[in-house]
Automatic annotation (TrEMBL):
Name listed for the protein in its UniProt record: Radical SAM protein
Family annotation (SMART domains): Elp3 (SM00729)
Elp3/MiaA/NifB-like radical SAM core domain: residues covered: 19-215
Top-rank lineage group of the source organism: Bacteria
Gene Ontology MF annotations: catalytic activity; iron-sulfur cluster binding
Amino acid sequence: MVEGFNPIRYSVIEDKNPREIVMLVGDGCKWRKCRFCDYHLDSSKDIEANFQLNKQVLSNVTGKFGELEVINSGSFVDLDKKTIELIKQICLKKGIKEIHFECHYMHKDDVQNFKNSFLNIGIKPIIKLGLETFDYDLREKVLVKGIEEKNPEVIANYFDEINLLQGISGQTKESMISDIETGLKYFSRICVNIMVENQMPIKPDKKVIEQFVEYVYPLYKDNDRVDILLNNTDFGVG
Ligand code: SF4
């Protein structure tokens, strides 16, 4: 974990699709190549320490909305077994019926078994992919996301929801709207993350962000299937 980084790890999302959200710690994203991402640094190889921290974070969960989102700056496969078991116990105890996890495309073949392990105990799992954009060249040559598949229909066979990254050079209002519309066509919900400055090579593009705020945001701000994070801490964690 990054020294001096003291994130908020539990929050409640009150407006669209109300749910509790926890930011847990795993042993680290196995891809780590995305050129816009430094949050995979929030990880540790000390599995027991991760579990103890996750246990403390999960103790905040009340089940008030019957829905929980788990993020861990990587994929669900990076979480230790004890943490996953504890999540299941908490869901059962607190009446949580729907749970969201995130996952990189490289683990797509692990998704169904993982989902089954929740379905078997009566909990609906929802898996979110960080897709970032349907523009293949931007995604793979610039962002280096590591998703070879081009067909959204195929991607949607594995994943229920997607993250989109907007506010970067090479995007226009038309391309951002097109990404959102394609996302809404194939996935149950989408989350638009506006690029924020970090230490990585991909930088926010002020002009593109202005285009987003002026033309794109008004179209989707009231759409219940679209979360929009103008800042990456807008969910209250991070
Ligand atoms: S897959 Fe996710 S956590 Fe891993 S490097 Fe890319 S954006 Fe970061």
